[in-house]
Amino acid sequence: MARSTLVICFGDSLTAGFQSPSREHPTGEDAPYGQFLQDHLGTTAQVHTSGICGELTGEMVLRFRRDVLEHKPGYVPILGGTNDLGWNAAPTEIMRNLVKMYEQTLAAGGLPVPVTVPSIRVEDTQDSCEGREWIAGHVARRNELNQLIQRYAMSKAIACVDLFTATADPDSGQLAQVYSNDGIHLTTAGYRLFAERVALVLKPLLSGRLES
Description:
Layout: E1 6-11, H1 13-16, E2 18-19, E3 29-30, H2 33-41, E4 46-51, H3 57-67, E5 75-79, H4 82-86, H5 91-107, E6 111-114, H6 129-156, H7 163-167, H8 188-205
Parallel strand pairs: 1-4, 1-5, 5-6
Antiparallel strand pairs: 2-3
């Protein structure tokens, strides 16, 4: 049978499209990642977003049934783990929470779209040995989590959106300056790219083919 065309993008502030105050926008702003995705998909889908700033993956699990499964979506792009990593949670612990949401989506007849966690950006970290070690450790833990996410997707033969690679500086591994709002959140260009990459996965799935 065909899946529902409802898409619920689920996650934390990166799904909400949060941006910190900047010189161009002194009061801060939200970039409508969900609206960007809707623009890409047009009338083939109805896109909703459910993102809460500062949320940990354990908290995401607690509200997942109410905010996602009860609406019976066909597709659920899931991005979580940035805040857990900020609190030094182990990648394996974060992944356990993500897997709960992936598996619940599959059990309900929907299709999860796992999204890798983007990098971070800290200026002037190359000026000291401590700075280089600090940023290297944070990037390494993101890579560890993202490898777990990608392996899960491969094991289930489902598409994964590699937002880390799409937005990272290939030389430093940090979040590329053009996509970095405050070192953690994305610029409008970053949120547009996020939506574009998710759309590349969803468009062929929403093309009207019957799926088992």
